[in-house]
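Good morning C.,

I know you're traveling, so I'll keep this short. The sequence:
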Amino acid sequence: MKTILTIAMLAAATLVGTAVPAAAKDQTWPADKLGKETSIPFIGTIGLYNFEADGDRGVWLQDQQRRWYYATVVGPCTDLPFATRIGVDTRFGGNQLDRTGTLLVDRQHCPINSLVASNGPPPKAKKVKKKG
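The tokens, ready to paste straight into the viewer:
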């Protein structure tokens, strides 16, 4: 049985993130866990909190404890950069997402190649106004 979860629109998740109390802000991983293969537990029951695409080959996923993960996919997932929601197939009906799972983006099935602990997406560069 497939476990499919849907994430609300990214814009809505961003708005929710601004209203989160300071105690619930992003959690960081211990240095010895960063970049190592891992899994997202209880994804079948509590789902994801947020995500941010990294082109068509990867995505940062954030769990409900606000820990970030980075998933790379096998081959390009062409709809990923434009996704407003994603789902996951955990394979074999499990309750955790790992490298054997699949991202469901629009009508594409994008198999995960690797899922590692991450500090999240890099900060966005601020736009500088040019003097006219």
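Safe travels,
E.
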